[in-house]
Design brief:
The chain is α+β, with helices and mostly antiparallel strands and 106 residues long. 40% of the residues lie in helices and 11% in strands. It has a two-stranded parallel sheet. The protein has a two-stranded antiparallel sheet with strand order 3-4.
């Protein structure tokens, strides 16, 4: 869970996660083929399908970026106990406060 306008944590976390996934693909291509990496935006006001798709593609060709309505994003975040909250408006826009965990599911 993150957002495309994130100035630091989200791009850094995605770079690290996708580097690990690339190493996994190299070492175990058959197993990696069964894994689907996802990025879920917590900022549906700014992150439409195009923005999320471009963000995901910048990190790995198999990374799928997901977004939705505010209600859909909220439901997904609650299902994974992911915290997020819109920060204060500033002259340059706003930031999103959010948790920073990755999930690996079988």
């Amino acid at each position: 869970f993150g957002y495309t306008f994130c100035p630091d944590a989200c791009p850094m976390d995605m770079a690290v996660l996708m580097k690990g996934f690339r190493l996994f693909e190299q070492a175990h291509p058959d197993r990696a083929a069964k894994v689907q990496p996802l990025f879920v935006s917590i900022d549906p006001a700014r992150d439409g399908p195009q923005q999320v798709g471009e963000f995901a593609a910048a990190f790995h060709p198999r990374l799928i970026g997901l977004t939705g309505t505010p209600e859909q994003v909220d439901a997904a975040a609650k299902a994974f106990v992911a915290y997020y909250q819109k920060g204060a408006e500033t002259g340059g826009g706003y930031l999103m406060d959010h948790s920073r965990q990755a999930y690996l599911m079988d």
